[in-house]
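Supplementary notes for students who missed Thursday's class. We covered one full example, reproduced here. Read the sequence, then the structure, then the short commentary at the end.
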Amino acid sequence: MPQGETFHRAVSKVLFISQIYGLLPVSNVRALDVEDIRYRWLSPRIFYSALIIALNICEFGAVLNYVGQVAINFHNSSTLSLYVVCLLEHFFFWRLAIQWPSIMRSWHSVEQLFLRVPYRFYGEYRMKKRIYIVFAVVMLSALAEHCLLLTNSFHLSNMERTQCKNNVTYFESIYRWERPHLYMILPYQFWMLPFLEWINETIAYPRSFTDCFIMCIGIGLAARFHQLYRRIAAVHRKVMPAVFWTEVRQHYLALKRLVRLLDAAIAPLVLLAFGNNMSFICFQLFNSFKNIGVDFMVMLAFWYSLVFAVVRTLLTIFVASSINDFERKIVTALRDVPSRAWSIEVQRFSEHLGNDMTALSGSGFFYLTRSLVLAMGTTIITYELMISDVINQGGIRQKTQYCREF
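Structure (token representation):
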């Protein structure tokens, strides 16, 4: 690993892109020195993020007004939850931005232990490359999903306009289909469409980016646990002096404190992200039992969105669980320490490893380990078995209904 490859430098460009959508409004996020990172209440980024949140709140109010007039149902309740999750993600990232300068300084202080000899020889984890690959794969897939859903909306709105004999223009039909809650209170204007699409992107972006952000944090922490494990593995079955185990134990405890610091800071985001992912997957699975039509574009958008949510959730778990994976490897390595080399320092190190879980969590309700995949899979299968009793799985897929009442 290059001497200057710190987590801050590896993730700074990713965070800068997120600020375009109003997330994590920290000043100097791309600064080379973490001491230059600042959170300023009176800064352009703060005003920009506040503007995006205010616009999202206004649109959420329009959604509430629309639901109050047409009555709440299973479909528009998902729209409500989307806006609630989006607003909470913006607020949680803003809360994290206040703590981010101090977090980065603490992280940088711990990293200095792993950027010098002997850890520099065990640094082929390629943290920056992994972060860029994860960000590119997840966000490009999210962009494809967004474009596919937009294309689906254009298609459905045009089918509604032509088949239902609506006396509106093509672009007005898009506005009417995409924003029925605004159509009730704001007359159509062409100039509004690009502006509303930008607001739509600020709503859609945080859902995928939150998972991506959790993965970036997991990669950054796992890179240091990987170096610690490699140093211990390099002396496998060798007799090492007590000073070696004292130093390794102190470095482990420094990483442990860093994990706790990050866990306390991002736990609300983890809880919200996985709660939203599970609810969305269950909602889509419920729809999969229903008649969703024979229209190819509708089917493509539906299944891509469902598969992407499942894959993104699994990827988040596997990447973030690598922290716990490396700790378990360290535990295994300690078991191979020869009896003649066993000392009080090795014993203390072993006790520290066995005390509690070292992993990111959702406010303590669950931990991001590989066992979480089994727990979530069991929950989804149970849910499917329950709804299969009340929904006819053999229903004939009839023609999609395009006409809607406004």
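Commentary. The CA atoms of residues 292 and 398 lie 8 Å apart. Residues 118-388 form one domain. If anything here is unclear, bring it to office hours.
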